[in-house]
Amino acid sequence: MKHHINLQFKPPKNSYLLTLASLIFSAAIIMVAGRALANNAVLRSIFSCQAQGLGGATPTVNVWFQQGTNLSFIPSGETIKKVWLNDPSQVTMDFDGPMCMQFGPDRNNNTGDCKNSAAHVIQLRRIEKINIPGLPNTNKTLLTVVTEGSGKNKLYTFEIVYDTGAPQYHTLAIYPDPPTASSTPACVRVGQSKN
Prior knowledge:
Elements: H1 15-39, E1 43-47, H2 48-51, E2 60-63, E3 69-72, E4 79-85, E5 91-95, E6 101-102, E7 110-111, E8 121-126, E9 140-149, E10 152-162, E11 171-175
Parallel strand pairs: 1-11, 2-10, 3-11
Antiparallel strand pairs: 3-8, 4-9, 5-8, 6-7, 9-10
């Protein structure tokens, strides 16, 4: 005895309402997911020439109380050789490898192995302001970093901004410059000196 099963689907007469409802639902999901991704941006990235300020702007790095902010030279393949922080009263620094530090007016008073500094990441963390005589009360400072990679030294300056509220990202990654037809990096302004 054979039974025939009818598997044909007959859409309801109001199928356009079902289609419209599914489109609205899909759009709502995409909007919510997009907003969630934007609010959870954990990584900022810039090219080396931008981070060096060769495009005419000093890059900013925000630091918050809730978490540290990493400045990573891992993608660029550069090693951090020396670091200066103009105002250490509101930011602490840590490194992922040995670093050469100099303290006091005697430039020969070094701690660490200056010839073999091997850090690739600087971890910055905002702290409650420590009163240091002679330092003005500001909402930002300057971080200077000297790196070495492929036998060349590079000088970076970053404006460190003391931020409040929820952190917007946790890492600023420095990437090698994109390839160009000329020897001048793509982000150098026309007419601007490379020096």
